[in-house]
């Protein structure tokens, strides 16, 4: 656990969430891949829990298997060992849980659909009547700050706008659990900060349970209420931190808080060891 | 400046004018000016007709110059230019429609199923290696001299072109887009309808333009080999009488039919693929 200074605050935060129910439980999770006849271990014996309303960042060096863990939680990838429970139900590969939303790192918008058709996709295939859909889509377009672009096709938008559309396409279905795989990894710094602002506003209002994969320490500290640090390959649980920065947070102002600075340097050193291990391989 | 539309149009019209003038009078002029041995035979109106003769043939075949009036001329000849065009167009259309529909269906099914793709793969490659034209006499033997054999020929030519493109397009669909659709609640069929088909459509259309020309080629070849009516039949009859200008009339009509069909496909394409940058202007 974290060192002395912010401990009181962190504990208070923990007490608060202890009462909340567990939404995601990962137990002894393992993933092995076969690459040209040789087996290698991507994820090794990882266990953690995410409670209702927590924003957990899964942080680790590139190739540590953090996206692999997320994809197994989402049921996109079969696991080689261990268990994953969502609301006490075992996750089955290939079976979609309607309570879970997923945001990709890569642009997965449908280029043949306009912004509003992309955002309304989930509602459309669920068979929601057009009139009912239109209201909710318009609200989501507004919320994403994309008014005036509702009829545009994705290729006319910037990277940041496209990722907003992707976010809204998932959020419009009101998932209680949100899995995000480095959703802002491909964006420039400025756009990234704006996306953080948008996501913070939404999350601080709606308090979904979030599991957010990233290799960006600043991003993890800005957004998350808890950071799970993974070791370099094979991915193992290294440390678990509470981020006791008060909310509402501003993605720029948050960097000037003492807690941010303290956690940043602490995790930085811990992460640094892992990066050195990656290079030594 | 030289790229402006007027300049381009000027040069296009200039080329057309030069071609028409040389075609019309080139042979006479060169006969008068050059020693006989140097006169290019290819310009002889006996072989290539000439614009004024073609125009006259057009008026005659099209029943514009008939003394008995338009209606009497149309009903008097069951392979007049209009009816022949209509028959060829109709057969091209149905051959194109059946060929592309079955090609798209087969491409989607095999593109989505690794098992079926592996089972049928060698057969499709083998069948595709047969020059389609070699099958035309067989098709006529089976389906007779009527329209059905022409539709079948066009189908044969169109099917494989569209099939291969749809197959490749289906395989090239972004896996993450499919995963995204699934995570948003799409069933297997919904994924096919809302992701695979729209995504493969760009590939499908890339084959539909050549497919239209191929359908027309298929029908015409079918008509050459054995038919009762149609533009191909008109050409064969004109050939028997060594009448180059009538052949030219049929060729020009085919050109217009081909252009019209291509425009139809292209406008459908630019509507359905309006999300792609190259079709933005026409959307």
From TrEMBL, chain A:
The keyword Electron transport belongs to this UniProt entry's keyword annotation: no
Record carries keyword rRNA-binding: no
Entry keyword set: ATP-binding, Nucleotide-binding, Transport
PANTHER family (alphabetical): ALIPHATIC SULFONATES IMPORT ATP-BINDING PROTEIN SSUB, TAURINE IMPORT ATP-BINDING PROTEIN-RELATED
Role noted for this protein: Involved in beta-(1-->2)glucan export. Transmembrane domains (TMD) form a pore in the inner membrane and the ATP-binding domain (NBD) is responsible for energy generation.
Family membership: Belongs to the ABC transporter superfamily.
UniProt protein name: ABC transporter ATP-binding protein
Organism lineage string: Bacteria, Pseudomonadati, Pseudomonadota, Alphaproteobacteria, Hyphomicrobiales
TrEMBL record, chain B:
Pfam entry (one): BPD_transp_1
InterPro entries: MetI-like (IPR000515), MetI-like_sf (IPR035906)
Membrane topology note: Multi-pass membrane protein
PROSITE patterns: ABC_TM1 (PS50928)
Main location group: membrane
Keywords: Cell membrane, Membrane, Transmembrane, Transmembrane helix, Transport
CDD domains according to UniProt: TM_PBP2
Transmembrane segments annotated in the record for this chain: 7-26, 92-111, 123-145, 151-167, 203-226, 247-265
Keyword Transmembrane set for record: yes
Keyword Membrane: yes
One example of a Gene Ontology biological process annotation: transmembrane transport
Boundaries of every ABC transmembrane type-1 domain copy: 85-266
Family stated for the protein in its record: Belongs to the binding-protein-dependent transport system permease family.
PANTHER family: ABC TRANSPORTER PERMEASE PROTEIN HI_0355-RELATED (PTHR30151:SF20), ALKANE SULFONATE ABC TRANSPORTER-RELATED, MEMBRANE SUBUNIT (PTHR30151)
Annotated protein name in UniProt: ABC transporter permease
Organism field: Bradyrhizobium forestalis
């Amino acid at each position: 656990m974290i060192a002395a200074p912010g401990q009181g605050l962190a504990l208070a935060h923990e007490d608060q969430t202890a009462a909340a129910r567990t939404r995601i439980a990962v137990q002894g999770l393992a993933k092995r891949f076969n690459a040209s006849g040789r087996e290698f271990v991507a994820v090794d014996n990882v266990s953690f829990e995410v409670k209702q309303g927590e924003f957990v960042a899964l942080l680790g060096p590139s190739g540590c298997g953090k996206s692999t863990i997320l994809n197994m939680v989402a049921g996109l990838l079969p696991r080689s060992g261990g268990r994953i429970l969502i609301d006490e139900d075992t996750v089955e590969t290939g079976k979609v849980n309607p309570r879970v939303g997923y945001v990709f790192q890569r642009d997965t918008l449908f280029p043949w659909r306009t912004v509003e058709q992309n955002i309304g996709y989930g509602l459309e295939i669920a068979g929601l009547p057009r009139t009912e859909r239109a209201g909710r889509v318009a609200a989501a377009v507004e919320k994403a700050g994309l008014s005036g672009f509702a009829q545009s096709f994705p290729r006319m938008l910037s990277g940041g706008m496209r990722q907003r559309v992707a976010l809204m396409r998932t959020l419009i279905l009101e998932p209680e659990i949100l899995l995000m795989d480095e959703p802002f990894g491909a964006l420039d710094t400025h756009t990234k900060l704006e996306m953080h602002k948008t996501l913070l506003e939404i999350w601080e209002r709606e308090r979904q349970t979030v599991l957010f994969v990233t290799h960006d320490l600043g991003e993890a500290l800005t957004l998350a209420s808890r950071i799970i640090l993974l070791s370099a390959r094979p991915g193992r649980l290294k440390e678990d931190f509470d981020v006791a920065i008060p909310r509402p947070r501003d993605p720029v102002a948050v960097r000037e808080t003492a807690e941010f600075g303290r956690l940043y340097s602490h995790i930085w050193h811990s992460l640094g060891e892992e990066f050195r291990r990656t290079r030594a391989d | 400046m030289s790229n402006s539309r007027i300049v381009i149009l000027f040069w296009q019209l200039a080329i057309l004018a030069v071609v028409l003038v040389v075609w019309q009078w080139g042979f006479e002029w060169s006969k008068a000016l050059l020693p006989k041995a140097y006169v290019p035979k290819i310009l002889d109106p006996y072989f290539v007709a000439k614009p004024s003769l073609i125009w006259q043939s057009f008026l005659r075949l099209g029943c514009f110059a008939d003394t008995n009036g338009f209606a009497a001329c149309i009903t008097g000849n069951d392979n007049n230019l209009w009816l022949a065009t209509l028959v060829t167009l109709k057969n091209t259309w149905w051959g194109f429609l059946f060929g592309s529909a079955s090609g798209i269906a087969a491409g989607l099914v095999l593109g989505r199923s690794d098992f079926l793709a592996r089972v049928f793969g060698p057969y499709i490659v083998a069948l595709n290696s047969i020059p389609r034209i070699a099958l035309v006499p067989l098709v006529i033997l089976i389906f007779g001299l009527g329209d059905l054999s022409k539709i079948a020929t066009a189908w044969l030519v169109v099917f494989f072109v569209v099939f291969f493109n749809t197959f490749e397009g289906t395989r090239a669909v972004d896996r993450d887009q499919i995963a995204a659709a699934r995570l948003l609640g799409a069933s297997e069929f919904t994924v096919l309808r809302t992701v695979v088909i729209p995504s493969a459509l760009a590939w499908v259309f890339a084959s539909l333009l050549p497919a239209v020309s191929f359908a027309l080629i298929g029908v015409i070849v079918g008509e050459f080999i054995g038919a009762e009516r149609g533009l191909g039949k008109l050409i064969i009859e004109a050939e028997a009488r060594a009448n180059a200008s009538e052949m030219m009339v049929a060729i020009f009509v085919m050109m217009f039919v081909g252009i019209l069909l291509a425009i139809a496909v292209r406008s459908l394409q630019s509507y359905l693929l309006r999300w792609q940058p190259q079709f933005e202007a026409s959307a």
